[in-house]
Write a structure and sequence with these properties.
Length: 425
């Protein structure tokens, strides 16, 4: 069975009718696209907490949303709501407070920030209790109920679902840096199964906080070019020295092609295929033979029902870490073969940094905008080609090019790898 509403396997064709974006470059897809096409960086010095003595003092932080006192879960929810409302409004489906489908939300684990921890400790001093009992007494106090409610893992999704009026219980996803792409995959699968005609898929992450920064720094994963923030993220360049932490949210409204057409929706793109494969080699490193990453890319292309030579452009995971960039190149070469030499490959992370749990959703949204505008966003800061990564990185300046099919890659610490194939309407 195959018609305009079904793929070659007879499954409902999944289309995109709404896109929303928040990154360090701004709120909304219009401002983000203008900045991306201009090759502008959103990386800047961190002002949220003291950075004296730290090797890395820069990030792609989102500091322009008013959330009152900072907490990572509150900012994650605020960014998800901003991106989700934008996507729903563009899709003209339901309303920003009554979305007619489920929510799949990628988000990092929620933690109390250190300022709140110290505040909690100080607030416990007059309780009459000692030690751990004293902390529990303070935590039970009324002023801590709101903070406590933010910290369960599902809290961000529950808040977003309540505000946007999605149907059923929201699904929270945390598969490290593949999370945003996993959320989209789950939405696609739900529509293909016939469980729903529409799904809201969001990735959000507000991990620019001192403890997370120190953790990644101890892994030697972060760039230390704090003196030149805009030049720090250098995917595929020989002198790359690590990724730059960043925040943001990306949202897609997915619908079955039949349902979208029936209500007269404008179709912005198609999710042609999803592929995943887990890597059990190491907590942070990829298998040296690349089999998991290769498998994810192959599975996505096979799921899309296309050939490797049909890929017009690769929106790379491209973190700017020495090992990841090389492994991604080797995996792309294994799958695309000689076609890779003629296929542009660029990394949005050169401009917005690595948005971690949100990256897959943000980069899928940017991939769809790339198709829509016929412009390839550049990989900025590419001044020193790496002879071990002989690709076309769309170096430093955006490039006009017709694009029908994009491969968008997301590879996460802990071994989860997800690739998406996105197509023109």
């Amino acid at each position: 069975m195959s018609n305009s509403y079904h793929d070659t396997r007879g499954r409902p064709r999944v289309v995109v009718t709404g896109i929303g974006l928040v990154t360090s470059l701004g709120r909304g897809k219009a401002d983000n696209w203008t900045a991306l096409a201009a090759g502008r960086s959103g990386i800047r010095p961190i002002t949220r907490f003291p950075t004296e003595g730290l090797r890395t003092a820069i990030a792609g932080s989102v500091d322009f949303l008013d959330i009152g006192g900072y907490s990572a879960p509150a900012l994650s929810a605020a960014m998800a709501l901003a991106a989700g409302a934008e996507a729903i409004t563009e899709a003209r489906i339901g309303s920003p407070d009554a979305f007619p489908g489920p929510l799949y939300l990628a988000t990092p684990p929620a933690e109390i920030e250190w300022p709140q921890r110290w505040s909690l400790y100080d607030a416990s001093s007059g309780s009459g209790e000692t030690g751990y009992k004293r902390l529990l007494a303070a935590a039970r106090a009324s002023e801590w109920r709101e903070m406590r409610a933010l910290c369960p893992f599902a809290s961000v999704a529950e808040r977003v679902a309540a505000k946007l009026g999605t149907r059923g219980l929201p699904v929270s996803i945390s598969t490290a840096c593949a999370s945003g792409a996993t959320a989209i995959q789950l939405g696609v699968e739900a529509i293909r199964r016939g469980d729903t005609d529409a799904a809201l898929c969001i990735g959000t992450d507000s991990s620019v906080q001192i403890e997370a920064l120190i953790r990644f720094s101890l892994l030697s994963a972060l760039s230390t070019r704090s003196g030149a923030p805009a030049e720090a993220s250098r995917p595929f360049s020989k002198d790359r020295d690590g990724f730059v932490m960043a925040e943001g949210a990306g949202a897609l409204v997915l619908e079955s092609h039949a349902a979208a057409t029936a209500r007269g929706a404008e179709i912005l793109g198609v999710v042609l295929g999803c592929g995943e494969k887990a890597d059990d080699y190491h907590r942070t490193r990829s298998k040296p033979d690349g089999t998991a990453i290769i498998g994810a890319i192959r599975n996505a292309i096979a799921d899309a029902g296309i050939a490797p030579g049909d890929i017009d452009y690769v929106n790379a995971h491209g973190t700017s870490t020495p090992e990841n960039d090389k492994m991604e190149y080797l995996s792309l070469r294994a799958v695309l073969g000689d076609h890779l030499a003629a296929t542009p490959v660029s990394s949005n992370k050169s401009m917005i940094g690595h948005t971690l749990s949100a990256a897959g959703a943000i980069e899928a949204a940017i991939s769809l905008l790339t198709i829509r505008h016929g412009v390839l966003p550049p990989t900025i800061n590419y001044a020193m080609p790496d002879p071990e990564i002989p690709i076309d990185p769309v170096a430093n300046t955006a490039r006009a090019a017709p694009v029908r099919t994009v491969l968008s890659n997301s590879f996460g610490f802990g071994g989860q790898n997800v690739s998406l194939v996105l197509g023109a309407p």
